[in-house]
């Protein structure tokens, strides 16, 4: 065979392969990926870069070895589930919250220890110095930081259900604060938060705990707590209490879904008497985020907002609900003044954005409630609300 014949055959093979590729529309998936960074109106915008999250996931996979993700067990408890492998992570087809076609998680009988928090060599072979939070007195400035709180989404008494709600808080940080300092400030603010702005109960398992320090190094976050928190919480509440710290720390650092390793100054080896400090914890994969996040968030109007009466009021938020349907009601002094429904950009298990135009409102104090009805009996399954004033 001549060189000319070989070149001709190679060109033909490449042409045939290229012709077999059928392009697909990725617009919806790309739009949905952006929704995870949806914001609370009236507060600074915050968006976790998708590309940064993907890159961080690859770094974590290679440098960390094995991390743990809290998952509910079939019997109602929780157990860490190995979440990393040596293969590059796949990109979910529908994002920002949970995506369809999720693979059922497995539940190993034992946890996998993970490496400690020592510096990890970089590409040149030298150790990367950790960025450690040192929030000391001195010049400081206010920063708007994301925090995650465990709040009630529906039910009552022993049947009350909980999920994570994202709130933005204003907290002092040193000028030119490092990601570790921002994380420490966000964790401190979130752990002491007494309300998420609505009427639903908010759990405060970390109210008596302080953050002794935060380190960001080697593609992971290390958080030292003053104590391990209370014991005896129901399994799901304890699981979400740990995940609230994970979501808050990773959001404040802003480098994607890094694994978070906890230590306790008192020497305790488990958080809340149930979750070992010998393993690391991460956010769940995008297609399983519904396991942590409350089904509905009302992002705007922000709780406590004062709005002008000469401007239309637009409510907005995100939701992971059946058939993307988000019913809502607007009340004033307990009396309904408007009702309606919105359609989220994607239905469960995805998480989509929704809006509701309330028009111009007379002066007064209002409560806007968005909720989800059960597909089985029509009862309210989950809700979120915000009280605001029009002047």
Task: Give a quick rundown of the structure.
The chain has 391 residues and is α+β, with helices and mostly antiparallel strands. It has helices at residues 3-19, 27-35, 50-64, 179-191, 235-253; strands at 68-72, 78-82, 131-132, 140-154, 161-174, 211-217, 220-225, 260-264, 270-271, 275-276, 280-281, 296-300, 306-307, 313-319, 325-332, 335-343, 352-359, 364-373, 380-390. The strands form six sheets. It has a five-stranded mixed β-sheet, covered by helices on one side. The chain has a five-stranded mixed β-sheet with strand order 13-19-18-15-16, with no helix packed on it. It has a three-stranded antiparallel β-sheet with strand order 12-14-17, with no helix packed on it.
Tell me about this structure.
It is a single chain. It is built from 5 helices and 19 strands. The protein is α+β, with helices and mostly antiparallel strands and 391 residues long. The strands form 6 sheets. The chain has a 5-stranded mixed beta sheet with strand order 3-6-7-8-11, with helices on one face. A hairpin with a 2-residue loop joins β6 and β7 (220-225). The longest helix is centred in the middle third of the chain and has 19 residues, at 235-253. The protein is globular, with a radius of gyration of 23 Å. 42% of the residues are buried.
